[in-house]
Amino acid sequence: MSDLVTPSDRILVVGASGPIGRAVVRMAQTNGMNATAASRRGPTVLDVSDPLTVARVIATAHPDALVYLVGTAQSTLERDREAAVDRMRTVVEAAVSAGAGRVVLSSSAAVYGDRADTPRGEDTELAGLTPYALEKIALEEALDALGGTLGVSTVSLRIFNVFGEGCRTSLINALREGPKPTLGLTDLFVRDYVHVDDVAEAVVRAVRRSSVTGSINIARGIAVDNLMLAAAAPGAFVPAPGGPASYSVADVSKAGQSLDWRARVDPLDYLRSLRAQ
Question: Locate the NAD-dependent epimerase/dehydratase domain: which residues (predicted)?
Fold first, then answer.
């Protein structure tokens, strides 16, 4: 599989202040890439709602590839989703005009919803109905259209439940670090947990593989229910009755085949390490 972006080339990571963005920049630099971290909080300050700032930052960074990790507002208003798409379009068009030949978008498992009972593949019908899911779906569709219009290689990474350094909203992190979360003791709440460093590796691989397009699930492909979490981290939570069934697990065969990637960190081992501390 040919590489579009070589290890020494430049990537611009937009939305780099979050845990995934920080991990991607570290991973890219470890792999010899010249990675520029841009976000509202810097180190390269970029507000994607300001076209002039976007143009200035991209002209300076002159990226060969763009990684778009900008968070969503999760608004229920359709016009806000349209605004999010417009902001991404502005950044992508500027990057391509500056010579970028590859765009990687951070999407989410939320696009599938959580009412299935088998792992979701990339060809599965998108059933996510939350504002967050609908915005991610809109961004994916817009990026795919931009790829055709601009003649640029694009891919959307559907990232499942991320844990690890800096992931403050993760249930895994809360179980490991506190404060004690409330955990419904049920095997009906099932998730696919993936470590932030594994996600970063997948992003960097996606940057480099120009022939990989469309969407790719980024996950372990292994179902973990709340009873398994409770057994791995006894005493680390406040027990509660289980709620309704909820299932979100990935079929990760495409990631393995197209990116030669698989997640390494086991969330249960990550929790069990509490006992050794």
Answer: 11-219
